[in-house]
Write a structure and sequence with these properties.
Strand content of chain B: 15-25%
Largest sheet of chain A: 7 strands, mixed
Order of helices and strands of chain B: EEEHHH
Shape of chain B: globular
Order of helices and strands of chain A: HHEEHEEEEHEEEHHEEEHEEHHHEHEE
Radius of gyration of chain B: 13 Å
Number of strands of chain A: 17
Structural class of chain A: alpha+beta
Strand content of chain A: 15-25%
Shape of chain A: globular
Helix content of chain A: 25-40%
Number of strands of chain B: 3
Strand order of the largest sheet of chain B: 1-2-3
Helix content of chain B: 25-40%
Structural class of chain B: alpha+beta
Strand order of the largest sheet of chain A: 10-8-9-13-15-14-16
Radius of gyration of chain A: 21 Å
Oligomer: heterodimer
Distance between the termini of chain B: 18 Å
Amino acid sequence: MSDTRKQARSKKARSPCMAKLDRLGWVASDWFDIEGYRLGVRSTSQPFSAWLRHSLADHEVEGPEDPDDTPIYSVVVEDGNNPTERRGSTKFHIIYYGTWDIVRTLDIQTLAKSLLHEIQSFTYPMRDDAVFVEASVMRLDGRTVLIPALFVKPLCEIGRRLQSSLDITLPGQMSVAIDPATGDLVCPEPMLRIAPDQERVLRALIPLDRAADPRAMIDDRVPVDLVLGWVREPHPLVRRGPRARAFYEYAKKVRNGHLVKADSIHALARVFERADYREFEYFSSKHAIDVLRVIGEGRDYDAHRTEATPVGASSAQDGSIDSEPRREGTP
Amino acid sequence: MTKKPKVRDDLTVVVLDGEAVIYDDETGDLHHLNTTATIVFQLCDGSGTVPELASDIAEVFAFDGAEMQRQVEALVEGFEDAGLLAGVERKRPEESVDT
């Protein structure tokens, strides 16, 4: 590709959101090779960068010729030394992938663990030792709950309110691994070579005492107790509902489908057959608390009850087919 | 109208609460069928023509016959377009017709 085209492509790729993110004050950029895939991590903290380079020393590489062509995580770390003042009274640590903030927390250990998990998940589209799905998991009233990845950000934005009102452990990972034979969530074989003392080094480099925020992460085999599907309704509700639509939405999010093929469907089928199912809609943080409380209690809820549909309708529902071409796996 | 539609044997089909999700290993495509489409899909076993299928469904479920014929024709055409039927070449995406 010519230099002129590279420059044009680089300029064109910078959305307003990304341009805004670019101005946050990055003091370090580190580059890593994970099983042949290169990615970058930039951060607002030199100590955090030092921790990352120590933790992933075996994977560290020189920066690429064209950094704009390399996937990059942007990590905002509130270590008290940020060169750029950020708005907002609560200074969260944040991980961005592109412009998508995927983790937001006050707990540096949670941030670090989530980042390592994210980097590890870069290999998922290349693996066939499990079915990898872009979805997340939380704990609610002692149950393991599978949730759409799209739900993680709005959930975590009101995380502290939820934690003060409910028995909930917020999600900490944006992909899950499913054993196709059992439908259990599993912790895949690590492909990252992580320094064994990384937790100690992190505490030494960033000795901040802020709110602990442990997240639900899959460290061992665990069955899914409840699957949640997010529906579009004009009012808050929780109901059992037909599961196929949610199944279809999760199936579209399989990251290694081109490798595991029909196993992805069998894996999700086992999850849905064994777990309870609820679909929900909410519009405000207050609704979210009410909705999640109802879900935790195993009840249904409808904020706007409607007349029951008469039995024995004489015409069929119009048949419909929704189709989605399967994408080749990309990190 | 005389052809007898039959779904392919190599599709992976999961039916949950009367609705089907279908995975096509050949293309990697996914399909979701609502309850009506699922009923028609499950009856496409090569034993009946489209009018016969429509008549059977209308009789069992007490639906309007002409309306059912229209629906079944449209759905079978949709199955053909999606490459779900045996002996029918899948249409390229630019040729697909929305159902």
